[in-house]
Batch of 4 targets.
Target 1
Amino acid sequence: MRRRDFAAGLLLAAATQSVCAQEPAKQHRIAIIAAGPVAGIHDPGVHAFQAFFEELRQLGDVEGHNLTVDGYSGGERPEHYADVAREIVKRNPDVIVASTDPIARAVHAAAGTIPIVWIGGDPIQAGFATSLAHPGGNITGATVYAGTEIWGKRLQILKEAAPTASKAAYLTTRMSQAPEGQQLLEAGQRLQISVVELPIEEATSAAIQRAFSELVQQQADAIIVNSIGVLIAHRHLSVELAEKNHLPAIYPWRDYMEVGGLMAYASDDRELWRRMADDVHEILNGANPGDIPIYQPTKFELLINLKAAKALDLTISPALLARADEVIE
């Protein structure tokens, strides 16, 4: 190669590198519709969302750099979900992240072909997917559904922790009433503990306070809390009221333990949201959501808070402590 051509080649390469260095990162936009207040998306206390954003950053999707995140609240009112979904779709995000089945159902109806990454119950029963391995359509994500049997397991653990309990209240919402309630009733018969459902119309502080007043009137002496996301936003209040009313309680998520809850039998919601971040990243890079398998947790952990037990004058048996995956002193 002649010296002149070689020098020209160096100049061209340098110019190309300069242009590439100055080329702005490709911008993506995702919309997140949370079950609780929109502020929870960036709340350091909501570890699921923190895990989601941390995973995205590790994958190179950084909010404020190459990623715009629009947050929305479901407003805790199912009748408003369709309006919120239509508002999101008008902005035409690259991906919509939907928390809970009722929200995902509204988004699914409005989204057209916009990809959806969702977290909720049984996706096949909800009509979101044809199978976990190959969802089809424009939706994928993570399911917390592990069969209704897990609710019987939670009640069994609660009964072991509080063997004198004779009536357990099941705190749930109208929109999430499902086979779990029946499973609890059947498990209660086997365990000789009656179960009363307390379905609230909407997940508000006032509604939860009324529910606790009702369960006290019904002389319930233990409580089990539904796993639906809208209740997590009120975890501080639920734990506070359980302690105030001297009620042993078992929760479906670690979040309740981190604000002083007694026990939880739960999958790792942080892992679920990390998996969802992986799905978002794949979709932003061209993957078809219908080809991405839906993640289903296979491991559940028993967490016990001895400080909360002491506040309730409750002695946890050595056998139950030995089975715990984590004991909080």
Target 2
Amino acid sequence: MSVLSLVATICSAFVVTFVTVVLPSPSTVTASRYAVRRGTRAAAIFLTAALCLDTMVFLILVFGFHPFLNALGAARYLAPLAGAGLVIFGLVMVVTARRDGSHLLSMAAEPEQENGGTTHGPFLAGLLVPAANPGFWIWWTTIGTSFIHAARHWGGLGLGLLLLAFLGGAVVWYVPLLWALSRGRQVFSERIQDRVLVLFGLIMVGFGVVLIWRGVTAFG
């Protein structure tokens, strides 16, 4: 495998992660509420815990789940499965962009639910909120595992860079978002946010179609 292939894999993982976290989710809404109501420090603690959970899941997949799939001979099915997941996530982004009340600032301003994430300490919430979201596990067991399978070709270096790409894709979105929300501002206007979600959703669908195509041709 060439260095160029490694760079393409890492860059794709970064872009896919970034595009995924742009989609409003329980984690995004909870982090935004912390930034608005308790300040940047609480939001940063929440984000740190969420990234710790991502790291733990990544390591479990690398040392447990993925070798198990290899032993079963099922690893080759990861690419089309991840492609289908990306297509679904992308279509959800497009639909979300056209739904009233999907904007981050309005969601962050909504009253807290009795069992909402902000009723816990920020670090505990950073672990519980993503773990309670089925989409989190679907993403990791399909898209995340597919990237792990690709990065394994370069050994520890590839896996280390992949983890940095996953974490970096989340941080690059969350840091400016939380900074803006903590000051009562929006990163994008509602109209621009809708357009960004549609654009990123289409990008996600495009990535998914490519993965599905590669998976299908690999069986040919």
Target 3
Amino acid sequence: MACSTAAILFDNYAKAAMEYFGATEELANLAGQHGKFEEAKKHAEQIREKCSATRQALEHHWAQHSCREMDSG
């Protein structure tokens, strides 16, 4: 049986990673627009920290519960 907590943590990480991808894409699109770029850079850094924290929570859970191998079906 798959660990429901690990599945939730993985989903949180996946969402944060997608949010980070969007923030970095926005940052790339604002190259050359100094004011908007700096604001987007701060936002991307905040999202990167969120992504890192969700990844750490998932890794910690896997280490504590030995449930990294989730059922695939």
Target 4
Amino acid sequence: MVTGRGTVSFQIKGSYGRRAPSKFASTLRPIVFLEYNVQGNLYCLHYYISADPRGWSEELSRDEVLAVANDIVELGLPLVTITGGEPLLREDFWDLAGRLIGGGVRVAVSTNGTLISEDTAVRLAELSVSYVGISLDSVNPQFHDMFRGVRGAFARALRGIENSLKAGIPVGLRMTLTRYNMGEATPWLSWRRAWMLRG
């Protein structure tokens, strides 16, 4: 958001006019945000589908999820961002990501980062996940933990970032802007505006 170079779009598709985008980046081919589950491992204050550890009984089954993956592969869509809830909570996440990647689809994962251990990061890298977007809502650990509803969420997210980078996976940070943390983004947004006007 700040520099325009950390987004999943830039990291995977490239930037028009600066470098040639990869061949799948046609503007006529949509990407998919697959809201894979509603279950979460945190109690985020802002979440619109009430994702929490209790889950939801009407999520798609493994077979239904793989049928969706097959449809995406058949349509030749270039990129799927698997999100939730917390997508890494489902055991069949690996089946879904593997089916998409095996079918030539790039996969990004949108996560709170708390479940990305060293082993998980290595497994994501071995699967050839293209990008991991991790939520970090403040540089203040206490605020982030309060916003995410679990003490220690900030430290665990940082470990997830470090583990992903160590495994060689590009990482982007996501920040949910609210009136409580907007001040942290404002100086960077002002810098970005000045940089863009510079030409």
